[in-house]
Amino acid sequence: MQEISEYLDKNKDRFINELIQLLKIPSVSADPAYSQDVINASEAIKTALLEAGCETAEICETKGYPIVFAEKIIDPELPTVLVYGHYDVQPADPIDLWDSPPFEPQIKTTDIHPEGAIFARGACDDKGQMYMHVKAMEFMVKTNQLPCNVKFMIEGEEEVGSENLGQFVADNREKLANDIILISDTGMIAKNVPSITTGLRGLSYVEVEVTGPNRDLHSGLYGGAVANPINILTKMIASLHDENNHITIPGFYDKVEELSKEERAQMAKAPFNLEEYKKALDINAVYGEKGYTTNERNSIRPTLDVNGIWGGYTGAGAKTVIASKAYAKISMRLVPHQDWKEITELFKTHFEKLAPEGVTVKVTPHHGGQGYVTPIDNNGYKAASKAYETTFGKTPIPQRSGGSIPIVSLFENELKSKTILMGFGLDSDAIHSPNEHFGIWNYLKGIETIPYFYQNFVELSK
């Protein structure tokens, strides 16, 4: 595939501009105000896949947002790669923390990306990484180097829990049949340290509501005489961790896998500079569960975090009230073997028991998914490793991620396929945060590397 560098040089400006046009579409699946934009994004993906060389592409309706399915079958006897990605994005809030409008992509240089990075919501998660596969497909088709069959399944609900994807997969097992699933929705350790994600944490996401009096009350007339839902909620949340930052929900750790000293030692070989980590986040100390390193805390250990909390008056000036209600959104990142539905129920039971007299508590589960670990001795992993070796000149490091892609375990259960996670993002890309961006070097490097995965996988499958 010596032509890939030449093809990239010739087409890189077009590849960048195409991604910029896609990033202009505010496909925020969580906000109904953007529903038409989400649909517009699906149409744009369908068009891009056809232009890249897929023989067929269709918009598959679901009870929510559509799934784009496309394929190019060159020989049923050859292996089939199924590419998964998503075209929906996180809300851009808080808008005022963006240095440039989130849906008006701009290319800026940074210390990490001196060659430039595209700043926009969805740049890295996941439009930029998903679109690498579209352009890699284009290269292989246009140069007659596609060595096997390829299918694409690009959804529009990943950021809201992929609620309708499970039914779609169950209803279309034959249509989606494959030999390996390829996803780029993760990252690598550094630009000069390639890595392949071999593990993902599961997720349980809930919303809690604490209700006290039947209306907001004057804090002078009623303060000290009735339970304040905001005070109560913060105490309840604080009690969910002990002095060692260990989660206090009974049964929470029952199925947590304890890695051996040998496995933890292998993980510790990954390059990591604690001082640089703190400097990048502008913090003076790290924080987390006692007895574990920073990289262990954010990958092989479960967590519980408040993602949002509100109630009462938060506007300008003063309004002295005791709020009738207080709310919080809470996410729990889970490790393999922890069942997200079981953990959600454990949380609900425990949190309701924490409520003192004078308030009522409501726990509303939103979405979740299982964790996943992929072996490094299968042909898919070997093919990916060789691909990175070719384009980076070094062997990638297997790495467990702290993030969640709940549908990966679904794919294995329904389609009986392993998933390979070839991510090209960086921790500094600010996904889910203001000023999200994706390095142009990383984007083009992904397009360069992916075709080698196909070539290697076919050779290893013979």
In short:
With 462 residues, the chain is α+β, with helices and mostly antiparallel strands. It folds into two domains: 3-200 and 371-461, Aminopeptidase; 204-256 and 302-369, Alpha-Beta Plaits (2-Layer Sandwich), CATH 3.30.70.
Lay out the secondary structure.
Layout: H1 3-23, H2 35-52, E1 56-60, E2 67-72, E3 80-86, E4 106-108, E5 117-119, H3 127-142, E6 149-155, H4 165-171, E7 180-183, E8 195-200, E9 202-211, E10 217-218, H5 219-222, H6 229-238, H7 261-267, H8 274-281, H9 294-297, E11 303-311, E12 321-322, E13 325-334, H10 340-354, E14 360-369, E15 372-373, H11 379-392, E16 397-400, H12 407-415, E17 419-421, E18 437-439, H13 440-461
Parallel strand pairs: 3-6, 3-7, 7-17, 8-16
Antiparallel strand pairs: 1-2, 2-6, 4-5, 5-18, 8-15, 9-13, 9-14, 10-12, 11-13
| Basic shape | globular
* Total count of strands: 18
Q: Kindly, what is the distance between the CA atoms of the first and last residues, rounded to a whole number of angstroms?
A: 19 Å
Q: In this structure, how is the largest beta sheet organized?
A: 6 strands, mixed
Spatial strand sequence of the major β-sheet: 1-2-6-3-7-17
Helix content: 25-40%
Total domain units? 2
Residue runs with pLDDT of under 50 for 5 or more positions = none
- Tell me, rounded to a whole number, the average pLDDT: 95
CATH fold node name of the largest domain: Aminopeptidase
Please report the first level of CATH classification, the CATH class of the largest domain: Alpha Beta
The secondary structure category is: alpha+beta
Q: Write down the Rg.
A: 23 Å
- Known CATH architecture of the largest domain: 3-Layer(aba) Sandwich
Proportion of residues in β-strands: 15-25%
CATH homology-level superfamily of the largest domain = Zn peptidases
Pfam family, one: M20_dimer
Domain Peptidase M20 dimerisation: 199-358
Keywords: Hydrolase, Metal-binding, Protease
GO molecular function: metal ion binding; peptidase activity
